[in-house]
Amino acid sequence: MRHGFCDLGGKILGGKMKLQRTERGATLVEAALTILLFFTLIFSILEFGRAYNVYQLATNAAREGSRFSVAPFPGTSTLPTAGDVETHVRDFLASANVSGANVTVDQTANGTNVNGVVLVSTEVHVQAPYSFIFFPFGTIQMNARAVMRNENN
Questions:
Q1: Is residue 61 part of a domain?
Q2: In this structure, is residue 9 part of a structural domain?
Q3: Is residue 15 one of the residues assigned to a domain?
Q4: Between helices 82-95 and 26-70, what is the axis angle to 10°?
Q5: What are the start-end ranges of the E strands in 1-153?
């Protein structure tokens, strides 16, 4: 005790007590950690948005392929071939800058049985690769599937 004051590690200079700076740089470290967490959160949000976008593109491509496959060409009862459907799906994905996708078309998938008649459906599977930009997680595959009943049976 000095003249009724507690000793807080300070020095009395000219009758005034000044605290010593023992936390020098702590604010800088806290700011650096906060900025790191903030940018990690921002980049995670951007990465998730991109991944969801690729998933939606794969889903839409599979749906477009199924729709293209089950509707006959105008004025005929001829359905597109599996190769035509695959090309249509790949063109749809290429318009959105998605490359390297695997497309599988099954135009003979048995659907439901209605009054003894088996309805034939088309099933399109799309597997689109997604590569992370900001994080070192490599590449994952986004899978989508669409099934539609053929309109000419």
A1: yes
A2: no
A3: no
A4: 150
A5: 11-13, 16-18, 102-114, 117-131, 139-149
The count of residues in the chain is 153
Among 68, 71, 83, smallest CA distance to 153 is for 71
DSSP 5: B
CA pseudo-torsion sign 72, 76, 82, 88: negative
Q: Going residue by residue through the chain, which has 153 residues, state the pLDDT in tens, using 9 for 90 and above.
A: 455 555 555 555 565 555 556 667 888 899 999 999 999 999 999 999 999 999 999 999 999 999 999 888 788 878 889 999 999 999 999 999 998 999 999 988 776 777 777 788 889 999 999 998 888 888 899 999 999 888 765
Tell which residue, 125, 133, 130, 132, has the closest CA to residue 142. Answer: 130
Domain assignment of residue 12, yes or no: no
The tokens for 136 are 């070192």
